[in-house]
Amino acid sequence: MGARRALGSVPNPSRRRIVWDPVVVSLRPDRASSARLLIVCPDRPGVVAAVSSWLFDQGANITHSAQHTTDPAEGTFFMRMEFVLADAAEARDELERAFEAAVAVRFDMRWRFSFAADRKRLAILVSAHDHCLVDLLWRWRRGELACDVRHIISNHPDSEETVGSFGLPFAYVPVGEGGMAEAEGQMAQLLEGRVDLVVLARYMRILSRGFLDRIGVPVINIHHSFLPAFVGADPYRRALERGVKIIGATAHYVSEELDQGPIIEQDVERVSHRQGLIELEQIGRDIERTVLARAVRWHLEERVIVHGNKTFVFE
Prior knowledge:
This protein is α/β, with parallel strands linked by helices. It has helices at residues 15-20, 22-26, 47-57, 92-107, 131-141, 160-165, 179-191, 209-215, 235-242, 277-300; strands at 34-42, 61-69, 76-84, 110-115, 120-126, 147-154, 170-172, 197-200, 219-223, 246-253, 263-270, 304-307, 310-313. Strand 6, helix 6 (160-165) and strand 7 (170-172) form a beta-alpha-beta unit. Helix 3 runs antiparallel to helix 4 (92-107) and helix 5 runs parallel beside helix 10. The chain starts with 14 loop residues before the first helix and ends with a strand.
């Protein structure tokens, strides 16, 4: 969570793009005035009352509120509020400055406002397996993911035709003789300053700390196991060898350490000795799709607060 003390060639962008543009499909007339406020602070009496009263004084109508504390006595307090403000687009800077002065300093808050009208710019990285990519694009086209998809990048050419059918740009960036450093340099040129979120939809390469720092935005990965079990490559084969009774998938934010970033969402499915490797992979692909889609949607809707190496998700 960003601390504010005041808390990435478009083939045939034709009729198809216009018809399916999620702006047309999903936005209601009142969305432009919808806003969210996320807060992290030491828990103490009066936080909710102070925030609610301040929003009321600004003419806001609170439409949803959720909060959590790690300990009512000496814990950390987390809150997410949705509200409608008639003039939200008119005076955002003033709104933030006023909140900082009147409430945030008093309660030692980390906080951020976001506005539903500000659609996040999304890039998706994918390798040979396209099931998560296709699922995300299908949901995006139906308006379930409120974002603007700016780039699809792959180290395999296989998905170019599929991506083109959605009217989206596809970049083939192979990992050639120059290795990942060269590939990361090409990808960074496409993404740096142009996207707000990167999703690894089964991108089967490890990204360096330097690349993550350069693009400077959150990166969400889908790992095809129920972390912390079977970190790294080939988890379904290792699960089969171990004789596990459940298999799962984990969506998490990417950190420098492999598969160790804060977990956003997980799910599992029961399996038995009757299922071989191919069946486990088939079951796993279904779990991967749904887990990744949930995590991406929750991030886009500002439902996730990262605190240390944990996330607090307000569904």
